[in-house]
Amino acid sequence: MTKLTVVSVAVAFDGEGRFLMTSRPEGKVYAGYWEFPGGKIESGETPEEALHREMREELGAEISDCKEVKTSVFTYPHATVHLHFIQCRIKPETIKALEGQEFKFVTMEELPEPILPATVPELEDVTACRL
Q1: Are 55 and 37 in contact (CB under 8 A)?
Q2: Nearest by Cα to 126 from 6, 9, 5
Q3: Dihedral angle computed from the Cα positions of residues 124, 61, 104 and 102, in that order, rounded to the nearest 10 degrees
Q4: Cα 119 to the chain's mean position, in Å?
Q5: What DSSP string describes 21-83?
Q6: Distance between CA 98 and CA 104 in Å, rounded?
Q7: Which is nearest to 64 in space by CA: 22, 12, 18?
Q8: Which neighbouring-strand residues pair with 89?
Q9: How many CB atoms lie within 10 A of CB 35?
Q10: How far apart are CA 60 and CA 97, in angstroms?
Q11: Does 112 have pLDDT greater than 70?
Q12: Centroid of chain to Cα 22
């Protein structure tokens, strides 16, 4: 059995209904793959608290109007992830790539490739209810 990692991910919308995707930085598993930003939930944190922290640490950005819309579990060869998808708003002008990652706001018709395998089956569901 693989190790379980619990993660919060932001389905962060800009003012035009596009959502934020980031690339995984060099040195991480699946480097160069695109995903929703976020990260591991630390002991004692709620999924929303973890997401606020991760967005500040990775992107220097503040999020608002958070609402958890879905959870799912995905098993990779190296780990199993329990994902908490949280829709929120973000101001694009506040984003900085603090870990050397790329980022862009996209629609379902403009998805970057490749996309992280755990993200693919959830894309349509979690972006359907735009804020």
Answers
A1: yes
A2: 9
A3: -120
A4: 9
A5: EEEPPTTSTTTT-EE-SEEEPPTT--HHHHHHHHHHHHH---EEEEEEEEEEEEE-SS-EEEE
A6: 14
A7: 12
A8: 13, 64
A9: 20
A10: 8
A11: yes
A12: 8
